[in-house]
Amino acid sequence: MCMTKIYHNALNIKCLDLSAANQVHYLSGPIRILDKDGVPAKPGDLLTVEICNLGPLPRDEWGFTAMFDHENGEGFLTDHFPYATKAIWHFEGIYTHSPHILGVRFPCLTHPGIIQEGTPEWEKIAREATRTIPGKENGGNCDIKNLNRGSKVYLPVFVEGANLSTGDMHFSQSDGEVAFCGAIEMSGFLELKCEIIRGEMKEYLTPMGPTLLHVNPIFEIGPVEPRFSEWLVFEGINIDESGRQHYLYVSIAYKCVVLNAIDYLSKFGYSKEQVYLLLSCCPCEGRISGIVDSPNAVATLAIPTAIFYQVPVGPYLLRKPDILKCTDDGNLPTTKNPSSTV
Amino acid sequence: MCMTKIYHNALNIKCLDLSAANQVHYLSGPIRILDKDGVPAKPGDLLTVEICNLGPLPRDEWGFTAMFDHENGEGFLTDHFPYATKAIWHFEGIYTHSPHILGVRFPCLTHPGIIQEGTPEWEKIAREATRTIPGKENGGNCDIKNLNRGSKVYLPVFVEGANLSTGDMHFSQSDGEVAFCGAIEMSGFLELKCEIIRGEMKEYLTPMGPTLLHVNPIFEIGPVEPRFSEWLVFEGINIDESGRQHYLYVSIAYKCVVLNAIDYLSKFGYSKEQVYLLLSCCPCEGRISGIVDSPNAVATLAIPTAIFYQVPVGPYLLRKPDILKCTDDGNLPTTKNPSSTV
Amino acid sequence: MCMTKIYHNALNIKCLDLSAANQVHYLSGPIRILDKDGVPAKPGDLLTVEICNLGPLPRDEWGFTAMFDHENGEGFLTDHFPYATKAIWHFEGIYTHSPHILGVRFPCLTHPGIIQEGTPEWEKIAREATRTIPGKENGGNCDIKNLNRGSKVYLPVFVEGANLSTGDMHFSQSDGEVAFCGAIEMSGFLELKCEIIRGEMKEYLTPMGPTLLHVNPIFEIGPVEPRFSEWLVFEGINIDESGRQHYLYVSIAYKCVVLNAIDYLSKFGYSKEQVYLLLSCCPCEGRISGIVDSPNAVATLAIPTAIFYQVPVGPYLLRKPDILKCTDDGNLPTTKNPSSTV
Amino acid sequence: MCMTKIYHNALNIKCLDLSAANQVHYLSGPIRILDKDGVPAKPGDLLTVEICNLGPLPRDEWGFTAMFDHENGEGFLTDHFPYATKAIWHFEGIYTHSPHILGVRFPCLTHPGIIQEGTPEWEKIAREATRTIPGKENGGNCDIKNLNRGSKVYLPVFVEGANLSTGDMHFSQSDGEVAFCGAIEMSGFLELKCEIIRGEMKEYLTPMGPTLLHVNPIFEIGPVEPRFSEWLVFEGINIDESGRQHYLYVSIAYKCVVLNAIDYLSKFGYSKEQVYLLLSCCPCEGRISGIVDSPNAVATLAIPTAIFYQVPVGPYLLRKPDILKCTDDGNLPTTKNPSSTV
Fold first, then answer.
1. Helix or strand or coil: residue D253?
2. Residues A231, A264, C284, A218, CA torsion sign
3. Torsion angle defined by CA atoms of residues C162, C167, C170 and C176, in that order, rounded to the nearest 10 degrees
4. Cα C214 from Cα C207, distance rounded (Å)
5. What integer pLDDT is reported at residue B332 of this predicted model?
6. What would the DSSP string read from start to end of A174-223?
7. How far apart are CA C71 and CA B305, in angstroms?
8. Lowest mean per-residue pLDDT among A77-91, B158-172, B306-320, C223-237
9. InterPro entries, per this entry (chains A, B, C, D) (predicted)?
């Protein structure tokens, strides 16, 4: 068991030239994991990594969400939004708000986008250009938005010492992180607790492909998550914009649902670029609702309406008492007891 | 094990003359509980009652909340609100709204206010006038607002057959039901599943007083409860309105917090009577926050702000698009990649 | 506005021969929707349908989940599970349990799998064989598992009277309904409240394809959902079992994650068929976690651990007191105040 | 508006001699609050204090819960538990566990027990001995267990500069903090954001007693709270242990319910002192369920069963695979399609 505090500085990412540079993730690590007797993790072990604490670096409480230029970084809807842009987000405790997307403020689930271990095939993997960008067998860029305080990751150990690395910290992200650099990217710190479970990689994780490397980590997500009362849910199916029918193709259904939501929300005074960025970083949920009713896969996107706060409502703490007046006459009829002496 | 469906008609309560009549609860029962071999529950057994389903009677989907005249039924704040009044509530699925308290609509936790068993000392208890009004050792008027679908009650069996009775159905209630007839009273049905655990009353329930009767039931509340994002919390301490300091007296602290909340919410266009009724029946939580820091007990009342819906907010489904316009200029700067050919 | 109660009898589906029959959905409807002045809904209107109440038919409180034979109904993992099978589920209030998959019991989000309106192109659509099977522009088989009490659907009106139809009732379903007939199929009733918003179809819904028909409904899901403390999360990426790398292909990533979860859970004494059925009907969440980090899409499947209840834990209501004993010696040291006279 | 980070060191409290010393709270402050133009808060203003971040001091991640000797600090159940004792708790991220109360581990809602402002009557108040111990009009020891990250307090300003002070940090506390020093006391830091709302004290807060000082602060609690699936609920009524009937006396009903819960939980291998401490510091909820059905007030105590983790259950990540085996035979019958060639 070990306890480590990582100060991960991703400020370089913050300065990124979104229109031209190649995107790279600067990770913290590799960290060599030893047990309390000093014996390193070994191939075939299972490594548990608990996220005890994490947050932005002190005096650096801000981040950004961005989409790349069409030729430079793709993004999910790059054909619709080919130009690079970004929005800055300010952090206030667990909340964030942006001068570039007014009228929204939301509580955040901060998490590392990347948590991974070393692999013996690093050279080969690097040649194939997947590098740190995608989610991979050894963890990688899994982008699980709920990997907040109290979460635990069960990782396979492929090399001696495990060579744990982590980073790509997100103050908040939606399922899918659709604008590519769509989470709220920030510099930050992490406190991790590691435990080695000797020789149990095989017992927990089964290869889903031809080699022993083709395993996927397992996660336990933490017990705290912002409560949201109301969700607005959009739907998409795998018919593309030309009207072409695809077959159980979730990626196209998800494209359809995100476009649907962008179109709808842009009716409230936002530009489509603003909504696209917002749907990349606010705590909305992207679900695979239907995957069996051929030919149509159904994807849904659920947006918590509480993130929009422009018009204060109800007996919130009063600031503009005239707006909030109830339209009732304010009187209930009361009936005095005829025998009462009060 | 047995399964029973109770159609409980409380319409008589609905016609109650609030200014003069004595309040009585019309219960359904007593129900004699047998096991599958036909052997009745016996003293010393423990009876579990699971609330499988419940709701308003078909074609009778309405209820009321009321406060009594000072001389007739007390109520928690009867000195401040001495006259009788009531509000009618209409049910729409799990939601309710009232023509007498405009601007609120909320999802409800429907439950029986009373669930109890027979006791051998019924005659004595009746003479002492507690009858069905209060919560008692055998269950009684416990008014636990979360006793919704999926909840389970563990009751002591004092007499052969258990003589289970239930009723006083509430479409919704706040903790405390402060206006006396303050829950949304309705007629309704209940589906219960009973199980006899032979001879285990003593193992589960310990008398808290001088006789074997002084036990209290245990409850498991169900797993569904409306999610609320935001709560407005008021505080009260045990200093009464004359400024007199009491000693760890929660009842006075709770009076203080309810008065506080009534005063605040009445600034939004409601009469104080309306707020008093609302705080009796909406899903708000009354907590004992501090009971050890002498001389002051601290009570809190938490109100979910989502029950107030007068002014639609955020990208809710649009009805009045002009109200909802974001004040932003609606444009994010975008940067075209100089080398791009798109 | 109108209020209607639909008794939808799907018993025929329950008798389905899974090994050979063609699957069809028997829907209730079409229902012609009029406003209070008797004027029917018209093309271009928006129809809101609120799900006020729903549930299994009285005395028919059971359902089933099934997978089809490979040649007969596909299913998401039909290559891995080519033979037909099914499990029966018994309902107890909001809970369900099965004699065929022991050790699980869970609270359910009951919903209609299909809610849809008539279209002018019905003949053409029928010829193209989509019929009622998939989710479609007019609603269709959307299979949104959270479409429970208090939910609201905003549907486009294409034909006079709207011709609303609904059915395919599910006592519970997971995101994706992976085994095809994977939800807990049941007969049931629905109480709906409809409202016509005149001429606003275009204002709410924007076509995502070449015709006006290419719109998707919007949903507001209800505020009650079972609370779950702990979720076990599996991950899958778009590398298939042969090791072939696909490109941002969520459907393959989802296949990977479901296989991962099946493999893991089958280590606890279940057959893989049992787990496959369970993951089709229990309230687990299928998410699109990463869709931008090419080449790998990342899908996750989150399973609430509370659905497994074999071994009672903690101070739950005691049945087997010896199992639950805490290993502590049961004594805290106490220190008497030397000056005390107690 | 101002932003401040308070490092509050309560280590002295940690060394407290529980059997003899007088309890005092060492607070951080007073902090003079100015607006951005340097103008101090003034009497009649309203001060909002948002809790942006808080936690234990680095390298001091532990705390304790304690009960005092009968003659020294009272406590809610001091007559039943007259001797001083304590339990140490270790922190792991948002979780805590104790070597003195084995078998429990729970996620925590960290909060300041005290947040208050200066008053002009300080001398008088001090003479009357309430000092920092109880909750008071200017805030004081409110012990609201949900005052976690993202919460906001609206305080009256009585003196120039407000003289804000805070401290008594709790890693976790139950409603009521019943054992007196019953929360998990710790040293810690706080990041606060203050805002002055000029002259609006009267508009927000109404005196509930004879002087202007008799106001109570209002709170908005934060949106993150651990999710718990299952709650075990105990009930108490205002009949004391001698069998004496009291009248709508919540404090006695709460005593009854806490004793009930202690008795029940002690059947699982804990000493009663351990349970008493546990019910003071774990996230359980104390509610005023009934306050109108005279003569009996009903109080309830709801305990999330997930805090007990001794016996791992269900398909949690497997450690002891033999314990977790499902008792099913593990085979569903499958039916091959007679016409199939697979």
1. helix
2. negative
3. -60
4. 5
5. 67
6. -TB-TTTEEEEE--EEEEEEEEEETT-HHHH---SSSSTT----EEEE-S
7. 53
8. B306-320
9. FmdA_AmdA
Q: Supply the pLDDT for residue D58.
A: 83
* Neighbouring subunits of C (3+ Cβ pairs under 8 A): A, B, D
Note if the bond before B295 is cis, omega within 30 degrees. Answer: yes
Distance of CA A6 to the CA centre of its chain: 20
- Decide: helix, strand or coil at residue C284: coil
Residues from chain C contacting residue B220 (CB–CB below 8 Å): 317
Q: Is the separation of the CB atoms in A43 and A158 below 8 Å?
A: yes
Report the distance separating Cα C184 and Cα C187, nearest Å: 10
**CB contact burial C312-330 (16+ within 10 A = b; e otherwise):** bbbbebbeeeeebebebeb
Neighbours of A124 (CB within 10 A): 9
Q: Which residue ranges form the domains of chain C, and what is each CATH number?
A: 2-220 (no CATH), 231-311 (3.10.28)
Q: Do A224 and D227 touch (CB under 8 A)?
A: yes
| CB contact at 8 A, D67 and D273 | yes
Torsion of CA B102, B103, B107, B109, to 10 degrees: -50
8 A C-beta contact, residue B136 and residue B214: no
H or E element that contains D255? helix D250-265
Which of B223, D101, B200 lies closest to C318 in space, CA to CA? B200
Environment class of A284 (CB within 10 Å of its CB; exposed 0-12, middle 13-18, buried 19+) = buried
A62 beta partners: A90
Q: Is the pLDDT of residue B303 over 50?
A: yes
Contact between C270 and D85 using a beta-carbon 8 Å cutoff: no
Of A210, A233, A292, the CB nearest to C182: A292
Is residue D307 within 8 A of residue D232, CB to CB? The reply is no
Name the token pair of D88: 């140490």
A44: left (phi over 0), alpha (psi -120 to 50) or beta: left
Among D107, D224, D321, the residue with its CB nearest the CB of A94 is D224
How far does the CA of residue D50 sit from the closest CA of chain C (Å)?
A: 27
Please give the Cα distance from D11 to A133 (Å, whole number).
Answer: 46
Q: Which residues of B touch D75 (CB under 8 A)?
A: 292
d(CA A102, CA A270): 9
Residue B250 φ/ψ region, left for φ over 0, alpha for ψ in the -120 to 50 degree band, beta for the rest? alpha
Closest among C95, C98, C101, C72 to C84, alpha carbons compared: C72
pLDDT digits (tens, 9 = 90+) for A124-150: 554 554 445 566 666 777 788 899 999
For residue range A276-333, list pLDDT tens digits in order.
Answer: 999 999 999 999 998 888 888 999 999 998 888 644 445 555 544 333 344 445 456 6
Q: Is residue B87 within a helix (H) or strand (E), and if so which, with residue range?
A: strand B85-92
Mean pLDDT of C88-104: 91
**Would the CB atoms of A206 and C290 count as touching at under 8 Å?**
no
Separation of alpha carbons B150 and D135, rounded Å: 37
Q: Of B111-125, D9-23, D270-284, which range is least confident?
A: D9-23
CB-based contact A41:A157 (threshold 8 Å): yes
Q: Is the pLDDT of residue D21 over 90?
A: no
Altogether, the residues listed in chain D come to a count of 342
Assign C26 a pLDDT band (cuts: 50, 70, 90). Answer: low
**pTM, full prediction:** 0.89
CA dist D289 and B284 (Å) reads 11
Contact yes or no for D84/D68 (Cβ under 8 A): yes
- The DSSP code sequence of B243-303 is --B-SS-HHHHHHHHHHHHHHHHGGGT--HHHHHHHHHHSS-EEEEEESSSTT--EEEEEE
What percent of chain A clears pLDDT 90, i.e. is strictly above it? Answer: 43
